[in-house]
């Protein structure tokens, strides 16, 4: 009798483990290609930004914040990971770099109506703080139907660090 219960218990355990394995089996994930990298507003602004910066800077778009900024040294592991997680899934709309060294000059955000939402305002506050603490100039442009290359140049020139100021 005791042997029968033992065998039944083992069979029951095996069946439960098989059931759990079936439930937890990785689902085959598939993906689809998006149609474009930029919204029409982002693409339009990129053209003007390229024209405004072509002589002085390389423009990169959709750059992950964590590829530009990293949490400050000296944080304990838990705080470092928390700080990293806050920026790891976010991106800058555009990054300006020195063409010869690829050093970061400034981050640029194109703010459209979506930035009025509570969620976007919270994200913007984090990005503002992160850039300020890292001493990376963050330039915000409102989305418009049209842009002036000269105005874009002027705003960038006024926003970048003094050593670069006037080099556009």
Nutshell version of this structure?
It comes from Shewanella japonica. Pfam families: DUF2726. The chain is of the alpha+beta class and 168 residues long.
Describe this structure in words.
Residues 35-157 form the DUF2726 domain. This is DUF2726 domain-containing protein. InterPro entries: DUF2726. The chain crosses the membrane at residues 6-24. The termini are far apart. The chain has helices at 2-23, 40-53, 77-88, 118-134, 149-159; strands at residues 58-64, 91-97, 104-111, 138-142. 13% of the residues are buried. It contains five helices and four strands; from the N terminus they run H-H-E-H-E-E-H-E-H. It is of the alpha+beta class. Strand 2 and strand 3 (104-111) form a beta hairpin. It has one domain (40-159).
Report the portion of residues in β strands.
Answer: 15-25%
Structural class: alpha+beta
The largest beta-sheet arranges its strands as 1-2-3-4
Biggest sheet statistics: 4 strands, mixed
- Count of discrete domains: 1
Principal-axes geometry comes out as: elongated
Topology:
Elements: H1 2-23, H2 40-53, E1 58-64, H3 77-88, E2 91-97, E3 104-111, H4 118-134, E4 138-142, H5 149-159
Parallel strand pairs: 3-4
Antiparallel strand pairs: 1-2, 2-3
Helix pairs in contact: 2-5
């Amino acid at each position: 009798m005791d042997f029968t219960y033992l065998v039944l218990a083992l069979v029951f355990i095996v069946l439960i483990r098989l059931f759990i394995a079936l439930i937890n089996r990785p689902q085959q994930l598939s993906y689809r290609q998006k149609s474009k990298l930029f919204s029409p507003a982002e693409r339009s602004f990129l053209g003007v930004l390229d024209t405004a910066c072509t002589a002085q800077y390389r423009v990169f778009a959709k750059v992950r914040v964590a590829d530009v900024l990293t949490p400050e040294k000296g944080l304990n592991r838990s705080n470092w990971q928390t700080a990293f997680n806050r920026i790891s899934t976010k991106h800058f709309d555009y990054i300006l770099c020195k063409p010869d060294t690829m050093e970061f000059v400034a981050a640029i955000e194109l703010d459209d109506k979506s930035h009025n939402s509570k969620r976007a305002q919270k994200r913007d506050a984090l990005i503002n703080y992160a850039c300020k603490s890292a001493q990376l100039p963050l330039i915000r442009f409102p989305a418009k139907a049209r842009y002036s290359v000269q105005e874009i140049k002027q705003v960038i020139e006024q926003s970048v660090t003094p050593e670069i100021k006037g080099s556009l």
